[in-house]
């Protein structure tokens, strides 16, 4: 046994030694054909081995082949070396398991057949791919080429390496490697699954470019049984945020505002996901989602992509997004926005967007034709948001873009649609149709300008415009323009040329419109052009034909204009306006600024020459007011007032410019260019004739040094027309005599200019002579001014007598101040002196002092407050007589004279009429102004012999004018203050008063009606005429003597007028409410009689309502302790009130006293009658009570007797019934029954008689004594018919206790 085992061991050792050493002694090259044959059979394609062959058995079976190549149709595979190492143990079990398969420098060439299928050899029939597995697959230095003969394209993978494992030839396969394509090294990760029932293989791979921070992950299904290889699955492309920091590629920006868009791929993280369907002919991406930027400010897009491969490749994109903010994710846009900022600080889209587009196109040039369909809900760019961006963008062969159906919603409720081509290059150029619809054109213009809409801009209605637009860096042109602005249609063309190479900006336009708003259209055009940083054109060629044109408030009809201006001068080829507010206008001419001076003349260089004429006609002069309103808005109201009512107007103006030699010019430069401009104005305005000539001579290059000469005359057949034209009618009254205005003068524009003005009219003479000078921006002048007027109406109230005035002063003015010094003269006989100073610049201030011998306060207050004043209601006193007047004006306050004025003016007057009939003396005050209010401070003087002091304030408020005042008068003569009729004063004494009032109103009447306040009045030592309390006693005695009451008022009135009331002292309160002054009551006691005064004064209606109440001393015979009263009423105007004696209270007192006396007599008689009636009623009651008692006793006796009879009857009946029952009972024999004979039964008890239940009589108490005629009590029983009341009231006999119970339960 041992020998046998030893032999086997030796045999095995020899076999192993032979397996280990033997292959080294075998020439395997001789077996090349065998290897090639077996390999061809295994792979199903011809296999050739051109290199060495090596085989080993131990330690593991292995095979090394060199120069291996396989060719099958369009597929060719070769390798420089192939090494296969088999696992020994599985091989001994009959399984093919490759421990390692290594390919060195494999070359794989794959091609697609015309049907798109992959031309690759198939496994031989009957080969089981599950029998072969590879534990380790190594590929190094490989190369793979995929060719498509149909398109001529190919994909090459160089330096291919791979390490992995293959469980079977059917999969799964896992591993990783790398390859180089397009000069870029990629790392690859690969994993496949086993084929499914449908032949699909799950394939997952990842790509990592090693020279950029990018990862590609794909997971899907690979199908090889389709007409061509097809892969479907999810794909993710991403650049991590960490890898993007500090990474930058490409050259640096070329300028400080250059936007380097190449940084888009390197500086921000992004991620692209979607579903990819890949075939050799097409790559389709669906459910695509792109996130660009970090999470907190990411830009998110969704869409699809379709890449068509082949001979004519193309890329179709469909991109959609919701909220895209390019300003936040594109680096460098903030710098570009700052460079293109508008006036309001916002970026101008027409600058930012084209520049960004230019740089984007210059950087992102797709290598193949690309079409993109856009659907963006909101896109933020250049600091503003575009909504609803939709359309199609396609690349062109020249690198530009073709835009189709592009539309978006812009700010200003604007919808824009455009198409055409966008050429790329150094500058962008766009050509194509554009349509814009905007409900808020100013909002659109503000967005273009990079700011907010200006609310002061003229209103413009909806805008709709379309046309063929051509735009590049130098020019923007719109051909076939069709626009509607505010429902006004415009057609034509517009072209704008930007300034360049010393050439100024220019605009050319030819427009036709039935109606056009020139102001709104021009402002809108300027706003749009301003958004592109365009200069306002300094050259233009304009043609306009409009049925109706408007500029602000100016409207014109039948406008035909063709004019232009440039560096060569101004040309008005034709300008006609058929209807300009009723006026017509014609202009034509040319001024050439490029003409040379005539040869041989003393002039040299350019000498402008030419003429322009203008003719204006209007049926009425006020038709030109609208034009003047736009030219001189500050003078519009004044001009409208002055020209209203003037007749037909025809004005001719001609401006002529020609070269000349100025004889006053510098003799050292005799050949210097000189020009003379002459403006001649001639025509008529209503009944006035105008003729004026202004001539300026000088160097056109220095117009400020020109010499000026002017001469003008205005002649009017009636002075009133000239006064209305110059505004002198507000200053003085002018009659209908002829009037003349002459203005002459001359001088240098940069030196002194002398002028003389003379106005001669009926009732007015004005003369002014002075000198003015303009030095740079400063203007100064002085003049001696004199004025003589027959009626200076500016200081008088309507209806007042003429106010003659003669004044003279020295007037001096400059840019900031106007001064009137040495003012002296007389106004209505009163002397006036003083000085005034006024600043012209805001805030305007006034200062000075005015002294007058007499002042009327009413017109002065009306002038200062801007009221259409009327003279206050009349009054008469000791120092004034009554005058006719009217109520307060209800016209609203005009602009107060103190509006926008600041300063302080002192006023002093020897006499001042405060109110008609009230004259104060030695009045001094200070007027202080603060721009919105006028304050009268420290007014002091004497009034009616008393000390007067007051302060007042007038202030402008939204409701008109507000007033506040404080007034105090101490120890004044009452007789001088009270109005009278020229006779003796109604009262004498001394009075002191104080009050504070305030109010506000839109007009004088409203202000007076709104006055409110309070105050106090006190009188001392007063003597009142026509009032005497003794008149009350006289009237009572007269009535007692038989005077009829209806004649009492006349009797008492005569007694009052003959008397006089002396009041030592009295005081009362003042209350002012709604313009009504209430006084009182003022109460005093005189000789035991009470005197009370209440008064009311309606300031608005000038109505007095006063009442004096006299109450006599107490009287013993006064009704109810009352005291007799008597009233005196004063109603009507304060100057002449109507006196009425009111005896109502006195008549009432007398009547009540008579009634009271009669009532006392009647009351005594009634008391006696009532006493007698009461005694008679008591006696009758006693008799009735006695009768009732007797009747009740009789009934009680009858009742007792009746009950006794009934009781006896019942007892008799009971005894008889008992006897009958005893007789009817049988007799029983005791012997028979065996019982003893019972004793006789006791007799049955006698039952009481039957009870009869019936209602019993009601017992009532005796009735109380009632007065005769009084009604019986409500509970009394009614009397039976035919019985007397006394019998019915008698009770029955007194009931027993049993009967009382029966009666209680109402039983009978």
UniProtKB/TrEMBL annotation:
Q: Where is there biased composition of kind Low complexity?
A: 1261-1298
* Bias type Basic and acidic residues, positions: 1114-1125, 1195-1223
For the biological process aspect of GO, one term held by this record is: regulation of protein targeting to membrane
User: Pfam families given for it?
Assistant: AsmA (PF05170)
Q: Which InterPro entries match?
A: AsmA, AsmA-related, UCP034039
Q: Which residues form the signal peptide?
A: none
What cellular component terms from Gene Ontology apply here?
plasma membrane
Q: Where is this region: Disordered?
A: 869-889, 1110-1140, 1195-1308
**All residue ranges annotated as the AsmA domain in the record:** 9-117, 809-1026
Q: Which PANTHER family match?
A: DUF748 DOMAIN-CONTAINING PROTEIN (PTHR30441), PROTEIN ASMA (PTHR30441:SF4)
What's this protein's name?
AsmA domain-containing protein
Source organism: Rhodoplanes serenus
